[in-house]
Amino acid sequence: MVAVAILAAGRGTRMKSDLPKVLHLLAGRSLVERVLDSCSLLDIEKQIVIVGYQGEKVRQALSHREGVEFVEQTEQLGTGHAVQQLMPYLQGYQGDLLVLNGDAPLLRPETLQQLVEVHQTKQNAATLLTANLPNPQGYGRVFCHQDNIVSHIIEDRDCNTAQKQNRRVNAGIYCFNWQKLAESLPKLSTNNDQQEYYLTEVVDYLSPVMANDSDDYRETNGINDRQQLSAAYDVLQARIKDDWMKAGVTMVNPDSITIDENVQLEPDVILEPQTHLRGTTTIATGSRIGPGSLIENSQIGTNVTVLYSVVTDSEVAANTRIGPYSHLRGSVKLGESCRVGNFVEIKKTIVGSNTNVAHLSYLGDATLGDRVNVGAGTITANYDGKKKHPTTIKKGTKTGSNSVLVAPVTLGENVTVAAGSVVTKNVEDNALVIARSQQKEIPDWHRHHDDE
Ligand code: UD1
Ligand code: CA
User: Fold this and answer.
1) What's the sign of the alpha-carbon dihedral 178, 179, 184, 186?
2) Distance CA 283, CA 302 (A)
3) In what order do the strands lie in the sheet with 275-278?
4) Considering the domain boundaries, does residue 109 fall inside one?
């Protein structure tokens, strides 16, 4: 068991933003929420977020999360001052306290689990997460007596040139024996470049304090400015893509691909360049997505291809081919072995199996059966300026090129629609419908200028 406190009261001046830093979004989720989520493997008895700058906004942003309590730091006098605010709150608490900077959104739950485990088995007064950074600039440097026993932490701005050479940094993640921490907190001074109360100063009063290196230094990245925010997105993406490649997904030019965290992929999916998978998308085995496709909140079956197309909120069954240049949106359901081709838009439509919509069509609010062939340029005129109306096309029906189906309208089974028809009335099964003016031919026609 452990209590968790997240430091989220700072403004984040270097972000140059009206929004408190911890509410900035990283791939759709705020920094502070990501920090909370990184605690998911811990056995938590209390979860506290310390708020201050625009605290009301931070509280609101986290209001949907159960069990989160808030403590106010009215003036932001430093990370040590922030933790001092817990003293009345945790009075008499006997356990350990995990303190996390609210701007460290890349921590893996396993890392925190391990940190707490080391802390508790060694019975340290404090155990900190550290990392050896290729470029440690901006971070507090951690100095050790021997092995991993920490003597002190010096902030970057308080380091002399020699001290700056130390690449071992403080990640801003600490596990404390609360009773011992509570005895040390009143001793903090403001004897530093920023004249703030630094939490890092407590290591001078506690013993033993142990440093625990993370095996992936990138997960300890703190976000202080917009560049670090965008670099964090890249780290997150690299992690997601590496995991999927390990799980059997092929990616061609992965740097050009983005994948949201909640996407699910099966082995032998192939992702081509410039493919973006968002939201709750799932893609089944054997499917090839891209180049140049965006799929959002959609379920793609096995052996589907999606080429230069956009698919949102839709379901696509096995062996169907989409694109190039198709757009599916607003809950489309495509059956098996269909083909949706060039410049086709489909909205809120259910399509059976083995049906083709190969060229230049718009289908909206429609229901199509199996083995329908939608001719090039067929349009459902589903909107009368006020309301949307449904179109039904039953199995085996073929529409000729450039047909307009004026909804509400139903074409029966095995209907043939002549090219260029404007169909306004329902058509019976097996009929041929021709709804266009007949071709007239006026023989021996002289154009005026021919007479001159
Ligand atoms: C801090 C550490 C540094 C470490 C780095 C890791 C200190 C003194 N320094 O520096 O050793 O390498 O994190 O990223 O702790 N906050 C408050 N109240 C305050 C001040 C800050 O709640 O009065 C919160 C901020 O919202 C932020 C976190 O504490 O989430 C860290 O503050 P920040 O100013 O970013 O600390 P760093 O200078 O990055
Ligand atoms: Ca920081």
Assistant:
1) positive
2) 7
3) 258-259, 275-278, 293-296, 310-312, 326-329, 344-347, 362-364, 379-381, 404-406, 422-423
4) yes
Same domain, 113 and 261: no
257 with 120, same domain: the answer is no
Last residue of a domain, one of 226, 252, 267: 226
Give the structural domain span for 68. Answer: 2-226
Residues 351 and 417 both lie in one domain: yes
Residue 128 pairs in a beta bridge with 174, 211
392 in the same domain as 358: yes
Same domain, 28 and 92: yes
Confirm if 8 and 51 have CB atoms less than 8 A apart. yes
pTM (2 decimals)? 0.88
333 and 211, same structural domain? Answer: no
User: Which of 15, 101, 141, when mutated, tests ligand 1's pocket best, judged by the most ligand atoms within 8 Å of its CB?
Assistant: 101
Give the pLDDT of the chain (452 residues) as one tens digit per residue: 999 999 999 999 999 999 999 999 999 899 999 999 999 999 999 999 999 999 999 999 999 999 999 999 999 999 999 999 999 999 999 999 999 999 999 999 999 999 999 999 999 999 999 999 999 999 999 999 988 999 999 999 999 999 999 999 999 999 999 999 999 999 999 999 999 999 999 999 999 999 999 999 999 999 999 999 999 999 999 999 999 999 999 999 999 999 999 999 999 999 999 999 999 999 999 999 999 999 999 999 999 999 999 999 999 999 999 999 999 999 999 999 999 999 999 999 999 999 999 999 999 999 999 999 999 999 999 999 999 999 999 999 999 999 999 999 999 999 999 999 999 999 999 999 999 999 999 999 987 765 55
Say how far apart CA 133 and CA 147 lie, in whole Å.
Answer: 18
Is 24 among the residues known to form the active site? no
- Give yes or no for residue 400 CB within 6 A of ligand 1: no
Number of domains in the chain: 2
Find the 92 Cα to ligand 1 centroid distance in Å.
Answer: 26
Structural domain contains residue 449: no
Among residues 152, 359, 446, 449, the one annotated as catalytic is 359
For the record, the structure tokens of 206 come out as 């506690």
